[in-house]
Design a protein that fits this description.
The chain is an alpha+beta fold and about 375 residues long. It contains 4 helices and 22 strands. The strands form 4 sheets. A 6-stranded mixed sheet has the order 16-17-18-22-1-21, with no helix packed on it. A 6-stranded antiparallel beta barrel has the order 2-11-14-13-12-15. The protein is rod-shaped and about 135 Å long. GO terms for molecular function: efflux transmembrane transporter activity.
């Protein structure tokens, strides 16, 4: 009887263990809490606005003189007198220097004497020829000798005139190559004269961009010598051929008069406006990001940054035209895009709070 009495206790204990093993585990008190929110990324923003933007071709140009000339000594000789110096203004025909003239003056007197002798002989033979006292051959010989003497006299006179070196053009003496006492050879350069009005700005445009330019367009040039000023000009001519070695086209701009502030040989930067757009949607250039050859902008809506693909137009002075993808009044991210993806929460920084603005407005009104 004692054995039967112990069995029920064992069965009850075993069932209790089985129930404990199969019972579900108590629920975690933390399962009901929400997942942590994604932290907001601090960004700086700007507002897309309507405005006017222009398109310009930009490049570099070199100033050249429309007219300049090496002034040569037409005859050889020793420099006797200098009449101008570098920087002097001259007109066409002005004397720049004189060579010694003693020998040429004597040669002119000799040629004149020979001419007078032959003229007298010819007049005498003319009278005799009318009387048929000399032959036609003798008469013609004296006539030809007279013509030769006349030519020799003219040459001697011209050589004496060429002893004075004269400027062939108006301009400024930009270089002097001779000194008093120098022996100069015939046709050797003695001076260089440069014409400063007009000056030409010459540059070369890639053939794929030449369609943007046309004769008559206004050009603005800036130079390191005058960093705070721009000088105006106008496209005078465009070469009709493409340089096969460089693939560029020569463009010449005629500069407006600027006194002597601009000089041939100066290197400048040229800007030529070729198109303009009114009522264009404009954003800061920093707002546009480019990835995989696609342009995009992050627009802030309801505290989140939304990535929008955009079509970019003209760019000028740090502003970019957006042809599609952004509207005027949209808030665009200009700093902090590297940490953004589509729908990222953002915190706008770098702008005054509304309370601060109201306080500032109140203070201004009280003041």
């Amino acid at each position: 009887m004692s054995r039967l009495t112990g069995w029920p206790v064992v069965v009850v204990f075993t069932l209790s263990l089985l129930g404990a093993c199969g019972a579900p585990a108590p629920e975690d008190d933390h399962d009901g809490e929400d997942a942590p929110e994604e932290p907001a990324v601090p960004v700086e923003v700007a507002t897309a606005e309507l405005g006017t933007i222009s398109a310009a071709w930009r490049g570099s140009a070199t100033l050249e003189a429309e007219a300049e000339s090496d002034v040569v000594a037409r005859v050889g000789g020793i420099v006797e007198t200098l009449l101008v110096e570098e920087g002097d203004a001259v007109e066409a025909g002005d004397a720049l220097a004189r060579l010694d003239t003693d020998q040429r003056a004597l040669e002119l007197r000799q040629a004149k004497a020979e001419l007078e002798r032959l003229r007298a002989d010819h007049e005498r033979n003319k009278a005799i020829f009318r009387e048929n006292l000399i032959s036609r051959e003798v008469f013609d010989r004296t006539r030809f000798e007279l013509e030769s003497a006349r030519a020799a006299y003219d040459l001697a006179q011209l050589a004496l005139e060429h002893s004075t070196i004269r400027s062939p053009i108006d301009g400024l003496v930009s270089a002097r190559y001779v000194k008093v006492g120098n022996l100069v050879a015939a046709n050797s350069p003695a001076f260089h004269v440069t014409q400063f009005d007009p000056l030409l700005a010459v540059f070369h445009v890639p053939e794929r961009e030449i369609h943007q330019l046309a004769a008559g367009q206004t050009a603005m040039l800036s130079f390191d010598a005058w960093p705070d000023e721009e000088f105006a000009g106008e496209i005078d001519r465009i070469s009709p051929v493409v340089n096969p070695e460089t693939g560029t086209v020569k463009v010449t701009v005629q500069m407006q008069p600027a006194g002597q502030r601009l000089q041939p040989g100066m290197f400048g930067r040229v800007r030529i406006l070729y198109d303009s757009r009114d009522n264009a949607v404009l954003v800061p250039a920093d707002a546009v990001i480019t990835e995989d050859a696609r342009d995009a902008v992050f627009v802030v809506v309801g505290g989140q940054a939304l990535r929008r693909d955009v079509v970019v137009g003209f760019e000028e002075a740090g502003r970019v035209q957006i042809e599609s993808g952004v509207s005027a009044g949209d808030t665009v991210v200009v700093t902090g895009q590297a940490a953004l993806r589509d729908d990222t929460p953002v915190e706008i920084v770098g702008q005054p709070d509304e309370d601060d603005e109201q306080m500032s407005t109140t203070d201004d009104g009280q003041g």
